[in-house]
Amino acid sequence: MERIIEHPVLQPGARAAVNFTFDGRPCSGLEGEMISSALYANGIKIFSRHKKDSAPQGIFCANGQCAQCSVIADGLAVKSCVTPVREGLKVETLRGEARLPRGSCLVGFGRVEELETDALIIGGGPSGLAAAAELGKLNVNTLIIDDKAGFGGKLVLQTHKFFGSVEDCYAGTRGIDIAEKLGRQLKEYPSVKAWPDAVCLAVFSDKKVGVLRGGSYYLIKPRTIINATGAREKSLAFPGNTLPGVYGAGAFQTLVNRDLVRPAERLFIVGGGNVGLIAAYHALQAGIQVVGLIEAQAECGGYKVHADKIKRLGVPVHTRHTILRADGKDGLETVTIAGVDAKFKPLPGTEKTFKADTLLIAVGLNSVDEFHAQAQEAGMDSFICGDAEEIAEASAAMFSGKITAHKVLKALGVMAAPVPQFWFDRLEVLKSRPGATEAPAAKNHAKPVYPVLHCCQEIPCNPCVTVCPKKSIQLSGDSIMTVPRFTGDCIGCFKCLLICPGLAVTMVDYRKDAKNPSVALPFEIGRGLVKKGDRVRLAGWEGADLGESVVLDVKDFKAENTLIVIVRASPETADLAASLKLYPAEAGVKSAAELSKADDETMICRCERVSLGEVRRAIRSGIRDLNQLKAVTRAGMGACGSKTCSTLLVNIFRSEGVPPGEITAFTKRPLFVEAPLGAFSGAKCLTEADEKASWSGF
Could you tell me which of 331, 319, 320 has the C-alpha nearest to residue 244? Predict the structure, then answer.
């Protein structure tokens, strides 16, 4: 079993075991666990064989957006990442050549219930929850729905502390704890109803919203609608991109941080934004070796403290590199990368191959804004917030939800005053991209104990300033985008170390020894990994090796789920030391130059396995309409509704020299996700498994 038993932040809860089978093999899962996670916990990564070429398939998004993880469960084809395992469930590989079971028999009709509400919020992530709380404060009749079993969205996957403002978005608090706080808020407002496991299917022209909840179909008629639907991960085109073991960073965080399943031993990551950098750190917390991370740009696009945090631990970050291919028979075995030139073309002779069983794709997000578009077409009072409106950090999403709620209050006539301008100004700060990076501030004092701030990039963050009891840490400017500076006295309380989201604050202490100071380092990788008396290696703020040291003490702050490791240092290294260096970096194996050649067999459409070569030939034949392309090649015709491949297809048109204005977009499907046809009439059906069970008693 590949379960995480010990974790520095997460505590596995007690859940009942559930027995099921996969292709006849006895397996064990946990009550409420999704089939995909249960299969991974049992070491199973191949969920299906594609009907076109029998290629093995596993998970990709683990969020219900694609159909890569489909299996047969008790005779029905389902997405394993959003279908819970249950006692006695018969799960089978979805094979193209296999006979699909007879779907169901009709046993009766029910009634489709219609409901009215003042505000409907689609999406229970950070922006949706923040909006619901604001509406609840003024007793607005609100319904918030989410397609997951619990609320919180991506917050429930985030074990790290958040950046931003303490006042506005819980900065310095872990995402999992923010999700709990926001969820508890909903219970304080009787006017807010929360529906988990409720899937929005469509917004219709008669201003009604179709919602499928627990097998029952509802038509909701809201006076206003808030789209807080978040974002979906982008895919990436390269040979081997559909091998089991190649999937999105969000899927990885779902397995590791939500379900406490260890899905990998050797991990490689594509993408140096915050998502990829944070996923690398989460992997280290789960005891997974991170072989490397690549970024095509000259610098990682995420916060520098996130990149420095993994560099300090020993993870190599390769900038100006791209992924060439992923190889393996029935799953990922190796990853090949190469350096790129100024035009992002691979440089021959720079190819390197690494052994890896998992490759995370973290190359950006696309807003999920389809419901907002449908609502606008229907003429509804429709509002949008969070990542559905603009991709940013969750801290910004929460504040965006608050602003959007006040727009709704004005539209409903509950409040007459417009949203104050300074709220929008504050939101822009929280959405800000990283700014300039300064050189570390030179020491200009002779204090016996003091913090060293290894945060030198302009990012929206102020927890260390807020928490200091002596007010001795101040921002260098008026905005929370400016870097912090130590300006007064320190009492050695460790509060700034414990709250810093980037683990970028250390504490130097000369009080016991004026010649050989100690340095306190925040540590979140694992309890018991470092002990008093151990010999360790120190790393500088950007990962430079500072030599060996001895551990003087380890303090466990269980309330913050953070350790403070106190090491001996010299006066020369005390202010430089920022972390322990735990892992040796791998260099990879030199590979043959021909690997850098373009491969027309790269899969673009995962659902229908349409290759890059097929798409290129169709474009070169004169096709400019994505709907025609779909009819000719089947690209975009699969179960995901082109959610995964549409961006890739547009990029291929551009690479073939077709101007964007000549491309006709896909016609949007009326339903956002798949739904049983009988749901719309309240039909009650039996599967083959149900029928067999009903006859077994006779």
Answer: 331
Least confident of 428-432, 449-453, 638-642, 675-679: 675-679
Q: How far apart, in Å, are the Cα atoms of 639 and each of 70, 167, 644?
A: 10, 43, 10
- Same domain membership, residue 558 and residue 606: no
For the residues of 535-601, what is the DSSP string, one character each? EEEEE-TTS-EEEEEEEEEEEEETTTTEEEEEEE--TTTTTT--EE--SPPP--EE--GGGGS--TT
CB of 513 within 8 A of CB of 567?
A: no
Distance, in Å, from the CA atom of 578 to the CA atom of 520, rounded to the nearest integer, reads: 9
In a domain, 586, yes or no: no
The structural domain count of the chain equals 5
pLDDT of residue 694: 44
Domain termination residue (choose one: 363, 381, 409): 363
pLDDT for the residue 416: 83
CA distance 475 to 464: 9
Q: Which residue has the tokens 């297809």?
A: 649
Residue 97 predicted with pLDDT over 60: no
Query: Per residue in 656-675, pLDDT tens?
Result: 999 999 999 999 888 888 88
* Cβ–Cβ under 8 Å, residues 567 and 550: yes
- Domain range for 648 is 600-662
- Would you say 135 and 157 are in contact if contact means Cβ atoms under 8 Å apart? no
Instruction: Look up the CATH number of the domain holding residue 186.
Output: 3.50.50.60
Residues 435, 458 contacting (CB under 8 angstroms): yes
**Residue 459's CB: how many other CB atoms inside 10 A?**
24
92 and 168 assigned to the same domain: no
Q: Rounded to whole angstroms, how far apart are CA atoms 186 and 418?
A: 24
* Domain boundary pick from 55, 90, 109: 109
Is the same domain home to 522 and 642? Answer: no
pLDDT tens digit sequence for 33-92: 999 999 999 999 999 999 999 999 999 999 888 888 999 999 888 999 999 999 999 999
Same domain, 378 and 358: no
Confidence category of residue 696, pLDDT binned at 50, 70, 90: very low
Q: Could you tell me if 227 and 371 lie in one domain? A: yes
Helix extents (H) in 301-359: 304-313
Q: Are residues 455 and 550 in the same domain?
A: yes
Per-residue pLDDT tens over the stretch 114-133 = 999 999 999 999 999 999 99
Instruction: Convert 255-285 to b/e letters by CB count within 10 Å (16 or more is b).
Output: bbbbbbbbbbebbbbbbbbbbbbbbbbbbbb
Kindly state whether residues 96 and 4 are assigned to the same domain: yes
Across the strands, what pairs with 145? Answer: 122, 195
Nearest to 605 by CA among 58, 72, 56, 235: 235
Whether residue 461 lies inside any domain: the answer is: yes
Residue type, 528: G
CA-CA distance, 669 to 646, in Å (whole number)? 13
Between CA 617 and CA 639 the distance in angstroms is 24
Kindly state whether residue 443 falls inside one of the protein's structural domains.
no
The whole-angstrom separation of Cα 574 and Cα 676 is 64
Indicate yes or no: pTM above 0.90: yes
Same domain, 297 and 276: yes
The proportion of the chain whose per-residue pLDDT surpasses 70, expressed as a percent, equals 95
